Amino acid sequence: MSLNYVTLGSNDLPRARAFYDALLPAIGGVLEAEYMPHAFCYQLRDGGRIWVMTPFDEEPAAPGNGTMTGLLCASPTEVDAAHATALAHGGTNEGAPGPRPLYGPEVYGGYIRDPDGNKLSLIHLKPG
Fold first, then answer.
1. Which residues of the chain have pLDDT under 50?
2. CB-based contact 78:26 (threshold 8 Å)
3. Kind and range of the H or E element at 71?
């Protein structure tokens, strides 16, 4: 089994679009679909997808407590660059890039929140 897609809610889709249009291509994402002003979708390198959308129930979007989407990066350098790109485009720092020995010697990552507060992990796993 593999993950096909994840959805992230937004209360300001144009702002979210500017953020993800900068971040996701930096880690190999390609815009696959757009249904503005309600949703857009990026396909990731592995075929998984990220949909960013206004909630279907028309209630305000809110990030989940304990929810985080992990984005696999090709190298520590890509983690660093993607983290910097996110911060330059309205994201907030939730943990600077670096080794994460708590999760194993092969883990390098950084953490951000998108402009709507959704938490994202930028992660590289060294082959081991």
1. none
2. yes
3. strand 69-72
